[in-house]
């Protein structure tokens, strides 16, 4: 796939079909993701991909925890709207109202999809050392975006979501990850359900002039 096409075709899929992603594809995608740049080539990332029964157990725990009203305890400090600054707050509010308008009476589906971890068929959990610097978050982000573009190139849909890492204590236990690593984000992978309305939603972007300055 042409690079530009891969960039433009990637978008967040929030309702995956039951078709599994094969391990060969997962390995190829990770082999491309690891070509991301990192601070002095430190390659701080670690990746655990959950599929099959392991992912079923995670999904079951997630659903139960939400139904019990357990508060999420992400290992990355949560970002509150108030701390975002004007530009971020404005974009989040445009995004939420666009989404509400688009879903209309099917708005409930979004919460259900999140509760079911979007029915992702594989989740790549991106981990970084528990004592990172901000640069480590930069490295992990570069890895994640390269992973998603590689997935698109393989015809595989994706979503990066904080939802996947709401309950890290259970993830440490189920996935056998020690406390020397923390869960940054999860990237859900699979094949989109083509008839799901939510998968037809596209997020807008600002005009580049609104955030770009080129000084001569
Ligand atoms: C760090 C991060 C966390 C995210 N968490 C969630 C989430 O928990 N639930 C969700 O539905 N989308 C989540 N998203 C997806 C964003 O809403 C999405 O990337 C954004 O609206 C742009 O849309 P696009 O990915 O379709 O281009 C997350 C994205 C990022 C980068």
Mind explaining what this structure looks like?
The chain is globular. The protein has one domain (3-210): NADH Oxidase. It is α+β, with helices and mostly antiparallel strands and 216 residues long. It is built from 7 helices and 4 strands; from the N terminus they run H-H-E-H-H-H-E-H-E-H-E. Strands 1-2-4-3 form a 4-stranded antiparallel beta sheet, with helices on both faces. It has helices at 3-9, 23-33, 52-67, 85-103, 108-115, 134-153, 168-175, and strands spanning 46-51, 122-129, 157-161, 181-190. Bound molecules: flavin mononucleotide. Flavin mononucleotide binds next to strand 3.
Keywords:
single chain, 216 residues, alpha+beta, NADH Oxidase, four-stranded antiparallel beta sheet, 7 helices, 4 strands, binds flavin mononucleotide
Produce the secondary structure layout.
Blueprint: H1 3-9, H2 23-33, E1 46-51, H3 52-67, H4 85-103, H5 108-115, E2 122-129, H6 134-153, E3 157-161, H7 168-175, E4 181-190
Antiparallel strand pairs: 1-2, 2-4, 3-4
Bound molecules: flavin mononucleotide.
| Total number of beta strands | 4
* Spatial gap, N to C terminus: 35 Å
Strand-residue proportion = 5-15%
Overall 3D form: globular
How are strands sequenced across the largest beta sheet? Answer: 1-2-4-3
The biggest beta sheet is recorded as: 4 strands, antiparallel
Q: Hetero groups bound?
A: flavin mononucleotide
pLDDT average, as an integer? Answer: 96
The CATH level-2 architecture is identified as 3-Layer(aba) Sandwich
Instruction: Report the helical percentage.
Output: 40-55%
- The domain count comes to 1
What structural class do you assign from the helix and strand content? alpha+beta
State the helix count.
7
């Amino acid at each position: 796939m042409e690079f530009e096409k891969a960039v433009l075709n990637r978008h967040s899929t929030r309702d995956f079909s039951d078709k599994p992603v094969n391990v060969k594809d997962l390995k190829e995608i990770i082999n491309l993701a690891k070509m991301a740049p990192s601070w002095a080539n430190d390659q701080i990332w670690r990746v655990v991909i959950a599929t099959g029964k392991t992912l079923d157990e995670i999904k079951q725990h997630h659903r139960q925890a939400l139904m019990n009203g357990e508060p999420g305890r992400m290992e990355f400090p949560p970002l509150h709207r108030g701390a975002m600054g004007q530009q971020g707050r404005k974009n989040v509010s445009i995004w939420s109202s666009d989404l509400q308008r688009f879903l209309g009476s099917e708005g409930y589906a979004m919460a259900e999809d999140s509760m079911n971890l979007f029915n992702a068929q594989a989740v790549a959990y991106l981990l970084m050392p528990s004592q990172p610097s901000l640069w480590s978050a930069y490295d992990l982000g570069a890895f994640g975006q390269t992973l998603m573009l590689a997935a698109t190139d393989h015809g595989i849909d994706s979503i990066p979501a904080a939802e996947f890492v709401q309950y890290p204590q259970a993830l440490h236990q189920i996935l056998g990850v020690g406390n020397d690593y923390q869960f940054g984000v999860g990237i859900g992978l699979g094949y989109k359900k083509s008839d799901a309305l939510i998968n037809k939603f596209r997020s807008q972007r600002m005009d580049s002039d609104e955030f770009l300055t080129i000084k001569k």
